[in-house]
Design goal:
The protein is globular, with a radius of gyration of 17 Å. The chain is 22% helix and 41% strand. The longest helix is centred in the middle third of the chain and has 16 residues. The N and C termini lie far apart (36 Å). Strand 3 and strand 4 form a beta hairpin. It has a 5-stranded antiparallel sheet. By secondary structure, it is of the alpha+beta class. The mean pLDDT is 96. It is built from 2 helices and 5 strands; from the N terminus they run βαββββα.
Length: 135
């Protein structure tokens, strides 16, 4: 994997992606404006990075997010199409860094950096199980 890899994904914002519908567990969200939730935008950007990497990973590998530094600069209503554009800008062993941006029909809604790490899924899960047994 080398820097320069790019990928783009688009989706239509549904009501379930808006702040009041993120989860009933957090009452503070219930009376917020019905716009794309920051968490959903970040998740969409992460998914775009995952899809960018998928064809380049060996069987049994996947990537996990390790750092997010993304600004959400404009609100987006349900029904709008958003597009995430990601570019791999640094590779250090299994650590990857992306420059990311997300746009809607009116312009930029979010941008920043996102880091991921390539893992062996089976080993990762085995370590988690061992940690749980220790605790």
């Amino acid at each position: 994997m080398t820097p320069g890899l790019t990928h783009r994904e688009s989706m239509v914002v549904a009501e379930r992606h808006t702040v009041p519908h993120v989860t009933p567990d957090w009452a503070g969200f219930a009376d917020m404006p019905p716009v794309l939730a920051t968490a959903m935008m970040v998740g969409f950007i992460e998914n775009t990075c995952i899809e960018a990497l998928r064809p380049h990973l060996a069987p049994g590998q996947c990537s996990v997010g390790t750092h997010v530094d993304i600004s959400h600069v404009a609100a987006t209503l349900a029904g709008a199409t958003i597009t995430a554009q990601v570019e791999l800008i640094a590779v250090e062993g299994r650590r990857l860094e992306f420059r990311v941006a997300c746009h809607d029909d009116f312009g930029l809604i979010g941008e920043g950096r996102h880091r991921r790490a390539i893992i062996d899924t089976k080993r990762f899960m085995e370590r988690l199980e061992q940690n749980r047994a220790i605790r």
